[in-house]
Amino acid sequence: MPVRAAAEAHGITPGQAVLAWQVAIGAMPLPKSADPQRQQDNLAAASVELTAPEVDAITALGKPDGRNKGQDPATYEEF
What we know:
Blueprint: H1 2-10, H2 14-24, H3 36-45, H4 52-59
Helix pairs in contact: 1-2, 2-3
């Protein structure tokens, strides 16, 4: 998993890796937490610089149509 690999490489949590990825692609993450430690962790993620291959690997997780398993809403029923 690219997120977990990036997190391990930088000694951060997967959540911090996702926040760092969002910063790297120019998005503005808006994390929310009432927990002071989590707030500090979220802020610390802004100083993490992912490598270009890490950013590319995380970006590649996205699907063009947003579907994780190819579910076509016209034929797929969740339950």
